[in-house]
Structure formats: structure tokens, C-alpha cells
Amino acid sequence: MTLLHLSFYAAFALSSLGLAFHRTHLISALLCLESMMLSMYVALSMWPIQTQTSSPTLLPILMLTFSACEAGTGLALLVASTRTHGSDHLHNFNLLQC
């Protein structure tokens, strides 16, 4: 395993650990999701260089598009939940209550 692979795996693992353990605010959960998507994007962008293929792949662009949609949806949920509940603390949200 090269140092490049190790750094991508470490970035993804640290962001998933941050998502698992630091879930007090919705914005911190969204930032952890974005860092996971960013590490996957960089890994997929470097993959043709590592395999020495000459054809460009569309997968990183597709992932970047989905990441932008996910960020927009997350920020819209953040604004809506802050307006209805008053804060972005995740313990204030009760999914069983109408």
C-alpha cells in the first residue's frame, strides 16, 4: 500500500469516525459527510493515474455532482430544522413526533 492510498483511507476513516462520535450538531454531521465525499472524489480522480490508463473516467465528475446535490439538500434541511426547532442540535429532533 502506497502512502497515497493510506492517506485516502485515513481521511475516509477519520471522517466516518467523526460522523459516528461527534453528532451533537447537524452541521458537524454534514461536514463529516462532505469530507467523506471529498476523500472519495480525490481517490477516484487519482485512480486513472495510479492504473496508468489514458482514458478519462466520468465517475469523479458524477460523484462531485451528487456531492453538490447532497450539500444543497443538507443545508436546506439545516435551515428548515433551525427555523422549526430553534437550533441544530441533533438531540432536539424527535422523528417519532409529528
From TrEMBL:
EC number: 7.1.1.2
Gene3D superfamilies: 1.10.287.3510
Swiss-Prot/TrEMBL catalytic activity: a ubiquinone + NADH + 5 H(+)(in) = a ubiquinol + NAD(+) + 4 H(+)(out)
Membrane-spanning intervals of the chain: 6-22, 29-49, 61-80
One BP term from GO: ATP synthesis coupled electron transport
GO cellular component: mitochondrial inner membrane; NADH dehydrogenase complex; respiratory chain complex; transmembrane transporter complex
GO MF annotations, alphabetized: NADH dehydrogenase (ubiquinone) activity; oxidoreductase activity, acting on NAD(P)H
Pfam families: Oxidored_q2 (PF00420)
Localization annotation: Mitochondrion inner membrane; Mitochondrion membrane
Bilayer topology: Multi-pass membrane protein
Keywords in alphabetical order: Electron transport, Membrane, Mitochondrion, Mitochondrion inner membrane, NAD, Respiratory chain, Translocase, Transmembrane, Transmembrane helix, Transport, Ubiquinone
Stretches of the chain forming a coiled coil according to its record: none
UniProt cross-references to InterPro entries, sorted A to Z: NADH_UbQ_OxRdtase_chain4L/K, NUOK/Mnh_C1-like
Predominant location category: mitochondrion
Function noted in UniProt: Core subunit of the mitochondrial membrane respiratory chain NADH dehydrogenase (Complex I) which catalyzes electron transfer from NADH through the respiratory chain, using ubiquinone as an electron acceptor. Part of the enzyme membrane arm which is embedded in the lipid bilayer and involved in proton translocation.
Family per record: Belongs to the complex I subunit 4L family.
Protein name per Swiss-Prot or TrEMBL: NADH-ubiquinone oxidoreductase chain 4L
Species for this entry: Garrulax sannio
